[in-house]
Amino acid sequence: MTTEPPPPGSGNSPDDDPFRKPPPSGGGSPYDPPPPSGGGGGPYGGNPYDNPPPPGGGGPYGPAGGGGPYGGDPLAGMPPLAPSGKRVLARIIDMIIVGVVVWLLSLLFSVGTWDSDVDNIDAGKSFGQSLIAAILYIGYDTILTARTGQTVGKRLLHLRVADLSNGATPSMQTSLIRAVVLWLPFAFCCACIWTIICGGWSFFDRPYKQGLHDKAAKTVEVTTG
């Protein structure tokens, strides 16, 4: 075995062997990555976490408190929310208006439930009157709300139903959902109790003062002037 260095050009000189090659000037290993351009940071040109925040502050989805790319407070730009007391009064006006029509139609079609003898009350007539009430209340509320956002009671008290998302007048489908949740239990089972619970919810709900029917339909009530 010879210890003589291999002849030049053989490919086995000490300068070609990375394990015997002397380190480059300035220290470091031949396997060290070159220093990043632009000064410091990771291999992709600076620390990715050192980038300045977007203008206006906040996270990647918009400024702090701005609600992201889909906007902030859904009530921004809407009129003030309707006082719960005025909502109740408007509902009472609507109940009286439709209730008179229900009573007249019940007499016309002989489905009234009044009888001095409670043992002779006809269950079929009671169901018929409830059905008439449900159809009229739901139809009245749905049609008027989808047209202008106002029933007669709301118009008199300067209130309006609006979509929570954009303040627009609710669609027919949204108005129907709202009316069914409000009036169907009222007509068939627990009129007073359900009205108090569903409508009275707005007294305690925050931040949008919604009744249960508003929550189901994603609506709010606002003032009109």
Automatic annotation (TrEMBL):
Pfam families: RDD. Its main location: membrane. Residues 1-71 are annotated as: Disordered. The chain crosses the membrane at residues 88-114, 126-146, 180-204. Residues 21-37 have a biased composition (Pro residues). Residues 82-218 form the RDD domain. Keywords: Cell membrane, Membrane, Transmembrane, Transmembrane helix. One of its GO terms (cellular component) is plasma membrane. It is a multi-pass membrane protein. InterPro entries: Pra-immunoreactive (IPR051791), RDD (IPR010432). Residues 58-71 have a biased composition (Gly residues). It is found in: Cell membrane. PANTHER family: MEMBRANE PROTEIN, PROLINE-RICH ANTIGEN HOMOLOG-RELATED. This is RDD family protein. It comes from Streptomyces odorifer.
